[in-house]
Design goal:
Layout (H helix, E strand, L loop, with lengths): L11 H4 L6 E4 L3 H14 L4 E3 L14 H15 L5 E11 L10 E2 L2 H7 L2 H11 L4 E11 L7 E11 L24 E3 L11 H4 L4 H20 L28 E5 L6 H9 L4 E4 H6 L11 H12 L3 H10 L7 E4 L4 H10 L4 E6 L2 H11 L8 H12 L3 H4 L6 E4 L4 H13 L9 E2 L6 E2 L4 H11 L4 E2 H11 L5 H9 L5 E4 L7 E4 L1 H12 L3 E2 L2 H16 L1
Parallel strand pairs: 1-2, 1-3, 8-10, 8-11, 9-10, 11-12, 14-18
Antiparallel strand pairs: 3-4, 3-5, 5-6, 6-7, 12-13, 15-17, 16-17
Helix pairs in contact: 2-7, 8-16, 11-12, 17-18, 17-20, 18-19
Length: about 550
């Protein structure tokens, strides 16, 4: 900001038909009057949320951004998220009383000032003999409707604690310029006066809160311009409407691809390449982060994903993608990075012709790519990397995606070779015989050849968890016996689809989970499970008897 005592009036705030309504949420009338006065100089009206107490709780245990983000979240929950509003907090750092890791009094300046006299502070600073340097900072968080996180503006002013107690009167017109706050004790650099004893014009270039408010006003000027863009400067997308009557000509659904694979197999590369052809690409982990809340702070990526899917449901990301894509469905769609079977199931319900593409590469190649990418350093060793794979598998999809994939890509060659594979898939050309592409990923086979399906089917029919011996007996009764040792081996690798119950003095038991049920539905709806000839014969005989009756 230029060192000027005068604001430049911003005509755009008053000259356009569409005008921004901005609210300041604070219990301090003095703070509101300060912001109102600054905004008035720019021609920007400011609204006040009147409250007898702060509309949010002040928790000083975290950072300034954490405090303000939490405040914004509380206000959205109590007042609503549809308004453009901001909150502000002031902090002070007195160097002689602070450490490298802790600012004093920091964000608690209001409480500290109420309990401290100038004489006490002056005496302490003289005894310590570490100087009188200090910094005042204003931190503002702006909530913009439809933005997940607030936008932050900060400004600080360095200076020193005065050698003498304030001996001037409060400015009635500008009550923030007063001897009764830290402003009356603080002399900014390049000034001989305390901030509190300056005139408003003098204080303009020295006031920490004024500087932050000017930054905010400059951003709002940009928003005001965007709000009044001419029609040719933007495109308006409307949700597609169903035709009033059936078309005489068959419609062609846009291509939809779900790209699944382990870390560094090539999912993101597929999506990036597809997006260059104007196909819409959504990365599941990116969409997942749009569901984040302040309670997710400090969680690892795995814990964060668990928390979001537990709170919002295993299809949460797919639901969000369907909503976002509904306006642009003519372009085609690529989704990379799904982790739950329910996500795939939901997309296939809306787009039955979508293709699931399983991308794979050897563990060694993927780990080398992981180290080269250096985007995430949570797995420094191969054991760490395997643990990362296990965490991703625990959501369910990666353990079984190959069972119902439409196309398998082997991405172990050069980037150029992989791009050619992607181009071949997206172009719709004949893929059989193309290097690194396999179409025979899901041969139709009797249920007896799919032990996981049969074990899950038995568990799904059972009213309680079953032992492996019970699974063997019940599968035999169904006509597809799975021996107990094989049942244990298969289900042990399917954790995430089943829950393993191990209790002292009791036999090991397995219980089917919702992802396991989703797997059964996908396998059956995809026609991947057929009955054995013996069972077909039995059904045929039963039909004849029924007709005879």
């Amino acid at each position: 900001m230029s060192n000027t005592s005068r604001a430049d009036f911003k005509e755009i705030f008053l000259s356009e038909d569409r005008r921004i309504d901005i609210y300041f949420y604070t219990s301090s009338l003095t703070k509101f009057l300060h912001a109102h006065t600054v905004f008035q100089r720019f021609g920007l009206p400011l609204n006040h949320f009147k409250s007898k107490s702060d509309p949010y709780s002040e928790d000083y245990s975290g950072s300034r951004e954490h405090l303000l983000t939490k405040a914004i979240d509380e206000i959205k929950n109590t007042v609503g998220a549809g308004s453009l509003f901001f909150v502000e907090d002031t902090s002070v750092k007195i160097d002689a009383l602070s450490t490298d890791s802790h600012e004093f009094p920091g964000l608690a300046v209001k409480e500290w000032f109420a309990e401290t006299s100038f004489t006490e502070l002056d005496k302490k600073l003289r005894v310590l003999n570490r100087g009188r340097r200090a910094t005042i900072r204003s931190s503002i968080a702006l909530h913009v409707p439809k933005l997940k996180r607030p936008i932050f503006f900060e400004a600080d002013v360095s200076g020193a604690v005065s050698d003498v107690a304030p001996r001037f009167s409060e400015n009635v017109q500008y009550p923030w310029l007063t001897p009764y706050s830290f402003n009356g004790w603080f002399i900014p650099d390049d000034s001989t006066k305390t901030l509190g004893e300056m005139t408003f014009e003098e204080s303009w270039s020295f006031d920490f809160r004024t500087r932050a408010l000017v930054k905010l006003a400059n951003r709002l000027e940009q928003y005001q311009a965007i709000l009044n863009l001419p029609a040719h400067a933007y495109t308006r997308f409307l949700a597609p409407q169903k035709p009033p009557q059936a078309s005489l000509f068959p419609t062609v659904d846009p291509p939809v691809y779900i790209i699944v694979g382990y870390t560094c197999a090539g999912k993101t590369t597929f999506g990036e390449y597809a997006s260059r052809t104007k196909i819409k690409w959504f990365e599941a982990s990116t969409i997942l982060r749009t569901l984040e809340s302040s309670s997710d702070d400090g969680l690892s990526a795995f814990e964060f994903a668990q928390n979001i899917l537990r709170s919002n449901g295993p299809e949460a990301v797919a639901i969000k993608i369907l909503d976002l894509y509904s306006r642009e469905r003519d372009l085609g769609l690529v989704i990379s990075g799904f982790r739950t079977i329910e996500e795939v199931e939901l997309i296939r319900q809306h787009y039955p012709n979508c293709k699931l593409i399983w991308v794979e590469a050897s563990e060694k190649i993927r780990f080398a790519r992981y180290l080269e990418r250096a985007r995430d350093k949570s797995a420094a060793t191969m054991d760490d990397f395997r643990n990362l794979d296990a965490q991703q598998s625990s959501f369910g999809l990666l353990r079984v995606a190959a069972d119902f994939a439409d196309i398998r890509l082997i991405n172990e060659d050069s980037l150029d070779a992989y791009h050619k594979q992607i181009e071949a898939v997206l172009s719709g050309r004949k893929l059989r015989g193309f290097a690194g592409i396999t179409l025979d990923t899901k041969p139709r086979h009797p249920a007896s050849h799919n032990q996981l399906y049969e074990c899950l089917a038995v568990l799904n029919d059972a009213p309680r968890p079953l032992t492996c011996e019970e699974i063997q007996a019940r599968s035999k009764a169904r006509g597809h016996e799975i021996r107990q040792n094989n049942a244990n081996k298969v289900l042990r690798r399917a954790l995430g689809l089943v829950k393993r119950w191990e209790m002292p003095g009791s036999n090991l038991r397995y219980e089917i989970l919702n992802p396991g049920r989703a797997y059964l539905r996908l396998m059956e709806k995809s026609g991947l499970i057929s009955h054995s000839p013996k069972k077909k014969q039995i059904n045929s005989t039963q039909k004849k008897r029924s007709k005879a009756a």
